[in-house]
Amino acid sequence: MDAKVNAIRPWGLSRMAPYRTILQLPEATLLLDPLTQTTQRLGADGQPISFPGHGSNTGTEQRTQVQTHDGQGPSSVDTDHSQDNDRD
Amino acid sequence: MTDYRPVLVVTCLDDPTADLVITELNRRRVAVARFDTADLPASLTVTATVGAGQEIQGTLSTPTRTVTLSAVRSVYWRRPGGYRFDHLDAQDARFVEAEARHGLTGTLTSLGCLYVNHPFRVRDADYKPAQLTVAVGVGFTVPATLITNDPDEARRFASTNAPVVYKPLRGSAYQVVDVPRTIWVDEVAPESLDEGIAGTMHLLQVKVDKHADIRVTVVGDRVFCVRINSKHLDWRYDYDTHTYTAVDPPPGIEPALHAYLEHFGLTVGCFDFALATSGEWVFLECNPNGQWAWMETPTGLPMTAAFADLLERGHR
Fold it and tell me: Which residue of A has its CA nearest to B293?
């Protein structure tokens, strides 16, 4: 392979496509409940908020999330699109 | 507070699936200590000793729990946020992060207890070429697959085996103008395979003629098979139109599932199969750290309880 190959835009990138729906999540503060060790989600008013569906495209910096819940009403569980890539 | 034989849950705060399992462990009065590796150094303090005739021991302290490492019952390794030292310049951060990773992850992965899953086993099992190779070895039917950066080979494979699909080997977070994008499994027109194939590795696979998809969640010795009916080739594109049905695996599948996990040293795994029009289950992939909780309500399968059973038991 010659140096020109390094200038090629890899074909796989051409397959990047949008999600069907994007869900704008409300701003929330996440806190660990000391007693239960589960996460509490508090809105700007300090009150607990429900969490409408949770995709797993969870870049920690982004509050726009991919809607991938199962449509069974307010869901608070992860679905399976490729999850956070920040693996350890 | 000192916990007797706690389950360690290593994950970020934003993990509703972990919350479900922790809630079930709480109901059973099993002690849980939850933290994120990203809590180091702000709110996590760890001291371990090893040597002089002793295996690793020590303590881990979060703001709300103090854990004796030798007493840990099991580790539920979900999706910790990694290590971040953004206040340092790049090479300082690189050094400090490596010290944190090798010191903390290195300690947490050396406890000799049950891991659901051990993160290093997850890493190994995350490589698709390895997945497909092991799948063939344990007897699953695997579609013909090409992994290449040679445009001619890609075009030859796509023409000879049409229709074929493209799948990312790994995938990563991707955004265009702050809007997330991803790659959906979809058919590839052979003529679209241009010289860009040379730019990195690409995976092409023969498209399976299928009735439906099957998601199999193996949790220790429990096997939960769910048929997913979706109108899309890639069911992840649209969860709203799915129907879920608990199904039994055909003969031979269950031993192969366990052999697969055994090969990689995994205690749990989320397998994707295509239910071929022939009735055969065709292996597509296995996510060693996959999601499962969203299927529990529509199927009634007790997956949360199975995870809690495994973590509580502390052995397979």
Answer: A77
